[in-house]
Amino acid sequence: MVRAAVLPAVSAPLEITSIDLPDPGPGQVRVRLAAAGVCHSDLSLAGGTLRQPVPAVLGHEGAGTVVAVGEGVAGLAPGERVVLNWAPNCGACHFCARLGEPWLCVRANEATTAPYARTAGGDALYPGLSVAAFAEETVVPHRAVLPLPDGVPLQDAALLGCAMLTGYGAVLHSARVRPGESVAVYGVGGVGLATLQAARLAGAERVVAVDVSREKEGLARAAGATDFVPATDKSAKAVRALTEGGHGVDVALECVGRAETIRAAWDSTRRGGRTTVVGIGGKDERVSFSALEIFHFARELRGCVYGDSDPARDVPVLAEHVREGRLDLGALVTERVGLEEVGAAFDAMRAGRGGRTLVVF
Question: Angle CA(300)–CA(275)–CA(199) in degrees, nearest 5?
Answer without folding.
Answer: 125
